[in-house]
Amino acid sequence: MLFRSFYAMGGVNRHNLTFSTTQTVPSTGSSQTVSFKTEGWGPLFGGGGEGWLAPALAIFAEGGWTRINGKPADESGGTYDDRMFFAVAGVRIRLLKR
Question: What is this structure's pTM?
Answer without folding.
Answer: 0.66
